[in-house]
Amino acid sequence: LNEAALSDKLLRITGGLPQKVRMLVEVLPEDIDLLVRARLSALDTDNLHALQMAQLFDRPITPGALAVLCKIPRSAVDQLLHDGFLALDNTGSSAQLSVAESYNNHPLLEVVDTEMRREMHASCASHLETIYSVEMDELLLEPIAGHLLGAGAVDKAVTRGLQAGRWLAQNASLHRSEAVLTEMLDASPSHRRELTLALMDTVVALGQSDRAIELCRSLSSDEDQTIQLRMARIHGLGGDLEAAQAALENLAALPLSSEHQEQVAYELADVLLKRGDLEGATAQCTQSLDNASGDYAIAFSHILGKIAFWRGQWDEARALYERV
Question: Angle formed by the axes of helices 225-237 and 209-219, to 10°?
Fold first, then answer.
């Protein structure tokens, strides 16, 4: 059958619903595509735009919201649903629509015009921002960032992308966090430091110490004590205590701020302890304890208490732990 004859026959048999076509007629996939293509091609501009918007939105949307976004009557959306172009999900608190399976990701629903696509992404982002302002649902941050990026609003996209990446990481969605932050980093080199630091935290949580070190080195400089300290910590978390010790000793030899002096001294003592160098850890703590601030004084005492306990010096260990 040619395209016109096939379309006419299947429309008469199934009432035009592709879902019924799949159930009732055994045809080759390319023949089904002919029917889908014919039905999409027959739509007027407004209805085709509505399907394109529903696909670009990339998540369920209420019928009323789709009508508003596309500036078409609600009845037009209902007709698209009736004709099988849209699928309805009534399982939630409100009815939600998405592009029907037979039409989803069809090439005819791709928006080729760059400017129009940006405007559509901007509309989607605005709609989701409105929902987020009411519901404060952090799951919306990721799609908002994606639509803002598609709209060309890179700075706003990065802001939402950072929020999304950090929230996803905190809620055990580490791979999604990595994907969001990587996408933002690729799109916005001007925000490299902040995005790289957030991505670094995510890949450390994923156990990718080598990649985290590479990210650190991409930001590192001899003057950047914060990054150098972070690199030492990542070495330690990755189990490379020798590299962690070397990095901390290099830092300790530099002129450091008082805050960094205490951080480096404590973390070096902790690494020495983990490596079994009790004498070195004791010397580091003893040297730093007299001038340590409250929190670090407690931390150094805690390490000395551990060392005394391991040496069987019970009374000294008890005295040190009582100070903690």
Answer: 170
pTM: 0.74
Which DSSP string do the residues of 96-161 spell out, in sequence order? EEEE-TTTTT-GGGS---HHHHHHHHHHHHHHHHHHHHHH--GGGHHHHHHHHHHTT-HHHHHHHH
* Residue 203 near residue 215, CB atoms below 8 Å: yes
If you ran DSSP here, which 8-state letter would residue 96 be given? E
Distance of CA 261 to the CA centre of its chain: 34
CA distances from 322 to 100, 139, 305 (A): 67, 45, 9
- In the block, tokens 């009374």 appear at 315
Distance CA 199, CA 185 (A): 9
For residues 161 and 179, what is the distance between their CA atoms, to the nearest angstrom? Answer: 10
Rg of the chain (C-alpha set):
30
pLDDT tens for 118-151 read: 999 999 999 999 999 998 899 999 999 999 999 9
How many other C-beta atoms can be found within 10 angstroms of the C-beta atom of residue 45?
A: 7
